[in-house]
Each structure stands twice: as structure tokens, then as C-alpha cells.
Amino acid sequence: xxxxxxxxxxxxxxxxxxxxxxxxxxxxxxxxxxxxxxxxxxxxxxxxxxxxxxxxxxxxxxxxxxxxxxxxxxxxxxxxxxxxxxxxxxxxxxxxxxxxxxxxxxxxxxxxxxxxxxxxxxxxxxxxxxxxxxxxxxxxxxxxxxxxxxxxxxxxxxxxxxxxxxxxxxxxxxxxxxxxxxxxxxxxxxxxxxxxxxxxxxxxxxxxxxxxxxxxxxxxxxxxxxxxxxxxxxxxxxxxxxxxxxxxxxxxxxxxxxxxxxxxxxxxxxxxxxxxxxxxxxxxxxxxxxxxxxxxxxxxxxxxxxxxxxxxxxxxxxxxxxxxxxxxxxxxxxxxxxxxxxxxxxxxxxxxxxxxxxxxxxxxxxxxxxxxxxxx
Length: 376
Ligand code: SAH
Prior knowledge:
The protein is an alpha/beta fold and 376 residues long. The chain has helices spanning 8-20, 37-43, 49-60, 74-84, 144-147, 156-171, 197-208, 230-237, 254-260, 269-283, 301-311, 336-348, and strands spanning 90-97, 102-108, 114-122, 125-129, 133-135, 150-153, 184-187, 222-226, 244-248, 287-293, 316-322, 352-355.
């Protein structure tokens, strides 16, 4: 097929992707290690404390409007905004459901790549689900993000700014329920966070640095969800911050997990769980095991018993996720009675189990549904 035969939209997409490759997002305040902020001020010929003033506005007061930074002169304001505060996330669409307490945002990045984040407000907390990559290279067959492959890693600032966008909307009372703050962040949007390790951990350091240097979030309120990249789980255990680790297990046996989570061919169940227990030992944190219940695939009582044998007696919590079928999927969620039996078997072995709600389902904002495309 010649290029002319390709439908116009598709040609445009291919070309844009090709030209975008290798072009880094413009440098942003949130890309810098906290210790390097002063250097930026110095590079602009400004005294050190200007960097602190800026951070105070950006992270402490959640102000992204230079006009409000009245302790800085108009010149300095525009100099700082122009040099290190480029707009990284262009809002393309916002979809809400649950009476306005669930909000999915679709963002266009500087190179045209699209990513999504979801804000979920509950009575006593607000959780933001953010993306760590545009697309994903892990290829799990039940996940919408995996279907299109990996476009690229997000920069540190592209990750932090998703959280800040939600934090600003909440602070300004733009989310149903009145003014509020982000209490939890889950890296369960698009992408495999541990495949973008350095940028993700930098982003987490900014989220957890005390305000006004960072967002002042508790490390415990941040969940890093992984397919099970063993070396990076071990590395994260050494970071010295007790983030919550979630492992997407989805099957207790290698035969089935090889199919559902293909990276299992590289790091099988026993190795992944060994790394998870190492994480629990190093941090004192209970590990979450994610398990999407798929009808007649991984929801048999036999598999519940195998899973219980792997987990009983460990510092662990199981999060069962009713499968959100992706378009054209041959799989669907378990029957309610099978789900109940699965829960019962795990609980009979004294394993903590919750069934995840399906927040955001109508707006394709639930687990595994994030698949921003140019038609999104
Ligand atoms: N790459 C990370 C984050 C992915 S999204 C990881 O794999 O952990 C967070 C969770 O949603 C993962 O457990 C993922 O396996 C699960 N998930 C993906 N697609 C899903 C679907 N269609 N239904 C239910 N859960 C899904």
C-alpha cells in the first residue's frame, strides 16, 4: 500500500509520531531535583531565594498564574514563567460521572502524545490516578492501554503536573463537594511506572517533599502499581520512602500468568512475590496484590486456593478488580457467585480482601480502560 492509500488521519498520526521521537518535553521546574532549583535561579542571574519563592507559589499555594506572585517583580515573574514553567499538559477533554466526583482528563503533550488521569473523590479522601507513560509496552491482553504499545516515557514534570492539575481544581472548589486536597496518588493510569523508574521516583520525591518545597503528601498515600519488574521492586525498597507497592498478579500459576501478564515469562510468580515480600520487610508496608477477576479464566476456586497458599501469613492485602472488558475483548467479569466464592476462600485463610469499585466506568476511566487516542 502506498502512502497515498493510507487514510488521511492515519498518515498524520504516523508522521507526527515520527517527528516527535526523541524530542524531549521542554524543561520544567518539576523536572528538577529539589536541590537543583537554586541553580536555575542562578542561571537566570537571580538570587537563590527566588527559586524558593517560586516553589512556594507553585507547590505550596498551587498558583499557576504569574500575576498572583506579587512578591516577585513583574519582570522576574515573566522571566521565570517563560524559562521553566512551560505548559506541558494541554487539556483536550474532561469527562465526569458519579455526580461530578469522578473526573477523567485527557491531556495532549507537547509532541501530540495523549495521556489520561482520573480524579476520584470519596467521602474522606481524594485519589488521583495518574499516567507514567504514554501507552505501555507490557502488552497485558486484557488492558486497553497495552493494546497500542508504548509511545514514550513521561517526564517527571508531566507526571507531577497531572497531580497538580487535580490539586488546583480541588483547591479552587471546581470539583463537586467543595474545596479539598489530593490525599492519595495511584500510579495506575497509563503505563508501567517501574519501566520509567528514575522519572517516576523523582516525581514521587516532589509529591512527598514537605510543602512548600513539594506537595507535602504522605508516602503511604502513594501507590506504585507494577506488573512485577523484580529489579526495580528491589530498588524501590531501597529508596527509604514507604510508598505502597501494588503488584498486578492476576494469576497464581505461571502457566496462566505467562498469558495474562507476559512479562511473567521473564520474572515468574515466585520471583515477583519474593521481591514483594522483600519490599514489605524493608518498608514495613503491607503489599497490595491486584487480581482482575476474569470469568472462567482465573476465577476458579482452585486458583483461589493456590493464591491463598502463596499469600497466607504474609503482610498483604488482595484487591480484586472485576474485569472491565476492553472493546472487542473475549473476556468478561466473573459471575457474582464466583467472585463471592473467591473472596470467601481467601478470607477463610485470614487474608485481607477488598473488591475494587468500578469508579469511572461510564467514562472509560476505570482500571484498564485508559486508552487515549486522537479520537478520544
Ligand atoms: N502497569 C501497572 C499499572 C497498570 S493499571 C500495572 O500493571 O500494575 C492498574 C491495574 O489495573 C493493574 O493491576 C492492571 O492489571 C489492572 N487492569 C488493567 N486492565 C484492566 C481491566 N480491563 N480490568 C480490570 N483491571 C485492569
